[in-house]
Write a structure and sequence with these properties.
Helices cover 37% and strands 18% of the residues. It has 416 residues and is α/β, with parallel strands linked by helices. The protein folds into 2 domains: 4-262, Mur-like, catalytic domain (UDP-N-acetylmuramoyl-L-alanine:D-glutamate ligase, 3-Layer(aba) Sandwich), CATH 3.40.1190.10; 267-401, Alpha-Beta Complex (Protein-Tyrosine Phosphatase, Chain A), CATH 3.90.190.
Amino acid sequence: MGLERVARVRDALGQHPAFPIITVTGTNGKGSVCAFLEAALIAAGYRVGCYTSPHLLRYNERVRVNGREADDVLLCQAFTAIEAARGETSLTYFEFGTLAAMQVFLQHSVDVAVLEVGLGGRLDAVNVYDCACAVITSIDLDHAAYLGNTREQVAFEKAGIMRAGRPAVVGETDVPATLFAVAQQTGAYLLLSGRDYSWARSDNGWRLKTPDGVLAGLPLPAMRGHYQVANAAAAIMALWSVRDRQPVDILSLRKGLLEAQVPGRFQVLPGRPVRILDVGHNPHAVRALAANLAQLPPGGTHYAVFAMLNDKDHLAVIRAIMPYIDQWHVAGLAGERGMSGQRLAEKLLQAGVGAQAVHVHADVRQAYQAVSSMAAENDKITTFGSFHTVAEVLACEPGLAATVPNGDHYATASTF
């Protein structure tokens, strides 16, 4: 649909931020990189605006200043201002939300903003704001109807967030030619993983080689998953690229690594049996989930609570994780994009899962409750397939809902 409409409303609102913006896109890893950036910048003493999507339990999760969610009143004030400014211009849900987030950040005079792309990059509403640094975490297939059926097409869309004369950190190591072509045409300068920076694990942590030298003895991220070091490296390189405007010291980097959290990214809940929540919903993400599951101690029965949307590559997702799941408890998701539990069960059978291992439930909550009632202490339960799937499990028990951070709200700039 283009950016003309949202740009028109942006200008009507007078939204011309002077603070630097770091824009983050990628097939997977966007939320984690945003969390690392947010935590490290806050630790360094900056007032940080962070806009992410989608949310799990509360819309407020999407808009934060210094790690605290915007409250309903503040968001509604922003929505009201947008409604008044847009006139006859139509806006999508995401466009409205993006403008509202920037309205909050401008109102509270943030020092720096971190913006997560919702879909693609080139035509995403976030791209209406110029960034000081672009980050592209990974490039793989998802949202094919919008972004294309090849990695080259996907890379072209994601490369659209790059700006002339500005750095673009690329965490993907297998970079399609289209990304290089867009960078050359745009005039952005690339910081490529494996070429311009590299990282390696050590016994007690990891180290990052930058164009300036080596950062050694970095702690492993608090967020679980072998891929989180790659995400952290991309985040640190983004901070390195804007160090002239927003320098971040090594102690703040360390604190950011240890404090950054994003619910639903290989989130292991306390207690027994082992319960894992993962929003993975495309083959790239589920391959990473499977690699993490492979590192778990053997033994017990591994149950899956599984639900997906219609427009995903179900067979590739199932095949990526099949070797690690013993029993599948599937359910449908509501809405036009939701796939029924029965249809998802058919996909499992098509992929080669035995019928005796597939169980269909009325909804995700029932699936989770059924598995929880039968799982023994040494078993494992992995909930995955969609943000919606994880959100329904988080919402079904008060104790689980409390694992979604940033419940503290703010209402006025004086709270900072």
